Amino acid sequence: MRAVPTQRETVSRAPDASAHDGAGLWASARTTLPGGPLAPGAARRFLRAALTEWEGLAEPGTVTARLGDEALVVVSELVTNAVVHAGTDIDLVCRLEDPRDEPAGLVVEVSDRHPSRVVGDDSAGHPYGVPEYGRGLRLVSTLATAWGITYRTGAKTVWARLPLDGTLDAEEEIEAYAGEGALEWEPGTADGVGPDLLAYPDPGRGAPDRDWRGRGALSFLAEASDLLAGQLDEDLVAALTGQLLVPRLADWCAVWLEDEATGWRGPEAAVAPGSRLARVWHGSENRIEELRRALEKDPPRLPEAVRSRAVPVPWPAEALGPRGATGAALAYRLIAGGRPLGTLVIGRAGLPRFPDEITGLVEDLSRRVALAIGAARQYARQATISRVLQRGLLPGAVAEIPGVRSALVHEPRDKGGPSGDFYDLFPAGNGRWCFALGDVQGKGPEAAVVIGLARPWLRLLAREGYDVPDVLDRLNQLLLDDATEASDAAARALVAAGAPVPVVDDGPHARFLSLLYGELVPFDGGVRCTLAAAGHPLPLLLGPDGGVRPVAQPQTLLGVVEDVTYTCETFELRPADTLLCVTDGVTERRSGSRQFDDGDGLAAALAGCAGLTAQLIAERIRRLVHEFGGNPPEDDLALLVLQAE
């Protein structure tokens, strides 16, 4: 579920004109990101890597820590804005202008594919069901010397230039967090605690640090985003939220997570029915359980306007002891994609109200927490669907064949998703057993569709008595017909929507399948095997003496060419003969520029297995494949071993 940059380009020491009439271009980097919840975190990682590289190339002091902190915040806000407003793929360009020119800066450009959508005005409230846009562009305008929006055909770009010399006032930077949604607060009313609560983590116990107030708050937000990004468990997100807030910004916090099936139950209600108190954290651990009981007994009530701005809630004095008799507590709705996902509550003893700086900062943090929870839930849904699909796409049990021992290895690259490799071994009637090992082009749902077609049809055709070539002929035509129907349906949908129909030869509905399919018929003294390989790695036969040879001829992939005629090979498996069938996840396993099967590597590995049982052969080949490369396999891996007894 992690978003990965798909393209990176670096240009260095090229005195070229910048995109927005600034200084000459010194270096640049670009990438394309999927427009989902993980895009902001991927953008920050990409920018951080670029800045690290440029820091080693530029003059000392050009790429400063302050520039990096502010750039990470700006790129996070711009990418988040593009995700919320467009949801399309996002192009990110970062340009470092030549420090010798004036004015020089770091330019960040974020482009989406929806030029008709304007950047939202966040000054008005939004009811439930409307996405929360936040205050990102106000923050960008504060940090940048210039920013703007450029509309082009098919794309909209929001850009910002950050100064290399860091001339903006640190006090101005943090004011972006204290927006119109912050609570009013009057200085000098909190037992000597002034409005500089944000100046240091523990008010009243140390000298204010103005640099923390300026850059530290920005760093906190960027680091919190990195910590939350990519978390795949919503309970872990809630736990991390508590550790981020306590004790730096609050004495205690609590996170409720709502049941997706129940959701918000306005107009004014406590935390929604079905919600659970996922996390309670207090600076003093002996107060946690008592605070939890109090919050469960009297959860916060929020108004119908479900935005992430702060709402005052009652102070749980009874649970906090004499030192916590009074204080301020705020609740924030956690909203992602316009849908409430939970509630965040923070509290600080001894304050009548939280300062604006804290209110705004936690509001920004709450939006990132909501995005992280939304991403974790999306991953959980996809993982559940994938597990269900995987169970339905593979046989519940492998048939036992008289006179044959079998062993199987099946390792999807994505442990949580459906594999593009599949297998089957089943009785076909009249003393026949059939086996199949296939590899579908692509992964995920498209692969699942093909497997969902191929496996049942293989069984049906085999049990109807069709021989091996006829089964492949009919399966090939079935895949071609299904791909044509899917493409026609997609074209009709585009026409109905008024969009032009793209002319492509190999689109998302092209469904290609490599398949090794065979039939086994036991007889006294051995097993007769008839098989065919359609675009698949050829099966290898290992004799008792260690000799290895291929036992099929290469033929065309299924689902590619109409009216192709497939042929088969027939041979006998004598006692101790072993047939090895693999997918290309085995033969094409990489180690640098080399592949596992280079120089007949698979045959050599199999020759070293003479005298081993089917199970030991399968385990040894699997281990050799894993050990061949230093990194985990990049493709699904499947192998089937059949050994005559």
Walkthrough of the structure:
The chain has 645 residues and is α+β, with helices and mostly antiparallel strands. It is 32% helix and 26% strand. It is built from 13 helices and 26 strands. It has helices at 39-57, 65-85, 136-143, 170-175, 210-228, 234-245, 288-297, 356-393, 444-463, 468-496, 584-587, 601-607, 614-628, and strands at 11-17, 24-33, 90-97, 105-112, 146-152, 155-163, 252-257, 269-270, 276-282, 301-302, 311-312, 327-336, 339-349, 404-411, 421-429, 432-440, 513-523, 526-534, 540-542, 548-550, 554-555, 569-573, 578-582, 590-591, 594-595, 637-644. The strands form six sheets. Strands 1-2-3-4-6-5 form a six-stranded antiparallel β-sheet, covered by helices on one side. Strands 15, 16, 17, 18, 21 and 22 form a six-stranded mixed β-sheet that branches. It has a five-stranded antiparallel β-sheet with strand order 9-7-13-12-11, with helices on both faces. The longest helix has 38 residues, at 356-393. The chain is elongated and about 90 Å long. Residues 1-22, 115-135, 169-212, 263-269 and 503-509 have low confidence and may be disordered.
